[in-house]
Structure formats: C-alpha cells, structure tokens
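Task: fold both queries, return tokens.
Query 1:
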Amino acid sequence: MTKWVRALLIANIVIFFAQMTLGEQFTMAFALVPSLVLTHPWTIVTYMFLHDPYGFSHILFNMLGLWIFGTPVESRLGPNRFASLYFLSGLGGAAFSFMFARHTPVIGASAAIYGVMLAYAYYWPRDRIMIWGIVPVEARVLVIIYTLISLFGGVTGGGTTAHFAHLGGFAFGFLYLRYIDASTGSKRFRRAVEPKIPERALTNWKKVDPKTVHEINRDELNRVLDKVSKSGLGSLTADEKRFLMTFVPPDDRPPMVS
C-alpha cells in the first residue's frame, strides 16, 4: 500500500468512528453545504473525510475504491501528484455541488476517488475491473458508465447520492491529468522521439524478478507481468512496454530499433 493511500484510509476510518461517537452535530459541523461555503470555507476539504455514520456501506465502498485504484495510480504519479489529484478532484466535487446543488449537504470521499478512478482508466484503459467479483468491465467503460449514471441522477434529482460531486471529481481529475501531460510534454511528441520497443526486446520478461524491484513499482510491475502471462506481449501498451523494459536484465536485452 502506498504512502497517501495508507494515510487517507487511516484518516477516513478514524474520522468515521469519531462521527459515530460524537453524533450528528460533529458531522454537520464539517459537512459541505454549498450555499454556506463563504462562511464555512473549511468544509470544501473536510467533507471529503465524512461518511454516512448510520451504516458501513458508504465508507466501505469508498475505501475499497481508494485501495483498488489509488495504489497503482500513486505508484504511477508519485506521492505529490497523487495527493494533488485526490484533493483537486475533491475540490471539483465541491465546485460542481456549489454550481448545481447549492442547498444540498454533501459528505463523502466519492468525488476525490472518482478522480483517482478516472486516472486509473486514463493510464490503463483496457484493464478489466471485476464488478461484484463477477462481471469484467474495462476501466474506460466503467468510467463512462459512472459518468452516465451521474449525469442521469443529477438531471433527474433522484436519491440521496451527490451526483454532481461525482461529475466534479471526474472533471477536475481530467483537467489535472491533462495538465500533467502538458507540463511533461505531449504524448504525441513523446511517441515521436522515444524509440519503439518491439516485442522481441521483451522476450526475456520471465527473468524479471519483482522481489528486486522497489516497492513503489512492484505492484505495477506485477500487474504488467500478470497481463503478459494472460494475454501476451501484444496486449501491452507502449507505456507498459517501456515500463517493463526498465526491469529486463541488461544482458538479456536485444538491440532496440527505432
């Protein structure tokens, strides 16, 4: 488990038990009421750490999402960028709630986690997520489904789910990911100048030992190796090939061709 994912899990769980202990007054003191944001500015951050104290499903699914999507995303982006993505997505949820649902109180980490989920789909769009442990859905399709659900729920106004907060998380998360791309060079430019890695350059991938890799990259390396085992080298994206190439033993590497 990565640094920020661990810290956020602990913080959310501790505050959840504080909610259960201290009662509704504690929750409402830190919940986001968009129309009151000018007099309660701290709530644009504190609302992300609150959950429904009358059941466990709200915090359970949010923390499960944080763990599943957050660990590989933080490994990919690094702690600082991951923290920025998480909190900017949460602020996006607050902003959209202010614009479209000003009088509805909002609690929950969902907006921030939706931004993280979007990042996962952004970097690994074809990875399959098992819904309820049964139905495989590609990450990019999952984001589209959740976007449509949030749009429909926001327009119809049904239920108690903060649909506009979810959309704000997606929107701000996407903008931040685009900012990262812009600040590190466009994808098109990187494709033009970086050498292409043919599959034969990775034929010795079985000799890669994840135990020798730093823990920050180990989970991502295991994921890539599992993907190769199941679907072959042809299933890897260009970024995944470059990532795997980093760990192929130097003596085993054939010459690279551009």
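Query 1 returned. Query 2:
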Amino acid sequence: MKILIDKSSFENMISTLQAFLDKKDVSQITSHILIEAKDDKLILKATDYEIGLEMINSLVVIEEEGTATSNGKKLLDIIKRLKSDDLIMETRDEILKIKQGKSNFKLPMFDYREYPSFPNRDIDSKIELDNLEFLKSIKKSIPAIDSNNPKFELNGALIDIKESRINLVSTDTKRLSIVEIKHQSNENKELIIPKKALTEIQKIFSSDIEILSDDVNLIIKSENEVFFTKLINGKFPNYERIVPQETKYKIELPKREIIEAIKIVTSVSNEIKMIIRDNQMSFESLGDENSEAKTELELNLNTDANIEMGINSKYLTDFLSIIDTDTFTLELNENNTPFVVKSQSSKTIIMPIVI
C-alpha cells in the first residue's frame, strides 16, 4: 500500500475513530485502526467488538492498493505533530511508514486478516423515520440514561417502535424521559441502544442517514460512514406504568425564569424545595442547616395548588436544557408524588425527594 493524503482530513478521521478503539490493551488488534486503500478510496475502520465505525475518504491518491493496521492512539499522536502538508503512507515488511517532508515514522502492524468483521450492512429491517427528529431525540434522551447499573438494560435507551409513533425512553430510576417521534409502522419492536453508542451517533451524524437493525445490531449509514452497535440484550421496564395517567394541576411556566431561579438556589445545594402556594412559586435550598438560599418568582400561576416538593435540581435543569420552547408545562398531584415536565414531544417524570 502507498497513498498520498491531505493531513487535515486524515487527522479528522482518525480523531473520530478514537472512541471506537480498545485503549486498555495495546496487544489487541482492536487497539488498531484498519486502513484499506482500494478503488480510489481510503477506508478506515475501528471497533472494540461492541461498537464500530467505518469512514470513507475519496480525497486520496492511491499509488499502490493495499491494507494495513496501526495503533490508533500512536497514529493520531504522530499526525497531530505534523504540518498541514500532504503526507505519504506506505507499508513495507509489516511496517507502516509515514513521511512528510524530512519527518519519517515507522509503526508496527498486526495481520489485517485477523481484524474483526463488521456486521452485514444490508440487513432487511429498515427503520423508516424522520432522521433529524431521531437525532434530536437522542440528544434529549441521553441525560436520563443510567451508567454502570447492574441491570444492563438501564445503561441504554429504549427505542419502542409502535404503529403510530416511536418512543425513545431512558431512565436512571429517579427520572424517566420519553421523547415521541411521529411514525407509521407495520410492526411493533423494541431495541435497547447503549449510552456510549447514542453519544457517538449524535457526534457523527447530522442528517441523511439510513437506520437498519436485526436482533443483535443497529446499523446507521450515511454517504461516507457506516456505524454499528450491538444492542443490549434485556427487557426494558414497563415504563408506561410509571407515567401518571391523570394530574390534578397543570401549570405553564417560563423556561428562562425557572432556570435563573434554580441557579440562585443551587449556589448552596443541588437539592432544593419547590413551593407553590397562594398562586406564587418559590425555591429554597435543602440539606445544609448552616447555609440557606431562597428566591421567589413573580409569576401569575393561575392555580390553587398548595405544594411543597423536594427535588434534585439537576433533573429539572437537564430537561430545561434540551427543550426548544420558551415555556413548559409542570403537571403534579400532591406532595411527595412523581411530577411531570412537558414540552412538545418531550416529557420527563421526576421522583421527588421526600421532605
């Protein structure tokens, strides 16, 4: 293999692939990027078996086709230090050589034939939906996904495909996020996607994607990328049982004013008390007897609710940070019962702190 490639575009590719490498054990082939030069294209692949990405670059001059591997981290460290000029890469005697001007580097390779294969990208089960809405929904769902939960299914988000909609659902057991996407389908299907995979999807893709799935993998394709992740094998909790079917009070609130009020109170504690009384709303800090913060909002709530609710402020601010509207709806029943915050297709059910 021998190629001439623009340094900047090559660096962008291997930077993106870092998240898909095994960085713990450099003796494993999964710590390497697979490099293929063929058919006037440069194809780079990285995978840790659970998640993988293939990237294609046509802005390359291929003098000699071939395949190589290189430790992804070392390769990036080298490329970052080079100038913006084109660079030459070639393989000789199981060594990858990199040259730019008077700078020369050599990196050992593994046998590319042992590199893990990617799943079949032409599986039949295509998920038809608004791609942009799907990518926006991922961003809204990620904050509520748990991390390192012994119940593996909670370490990802559920894609619940129904005949008239798709619900993207996530929970850390203290809150439940549901984002609804309008959708027409002839099948009901549930897929649980790991949090890491969702995080990378929103970084890589912007629009014009094709989404495929089988019982084991989810595959997303665009013009120059093919992404895959293994699905989480498990049964997601029956989230619809947790959603309150009726709420006694529905209050529309301004997003900006609520965020500013919470910032004031969380200067002392992230655990706060939300008070709705006499048609007014206020917040107070909780948890520290020696410190106190409180603030009252000048709002006309148009409600006779009399509520005192302890909440983790992060759950509320996470929701407010991902909605696109200037107002949102607060739905609640009585003290110390779960409450709901809503905006358009997004809603989060939050468990209170008992006070």
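Both queries returned. Flag for query 2: The chain has three domains: 2-114, 131-241, 249-350.
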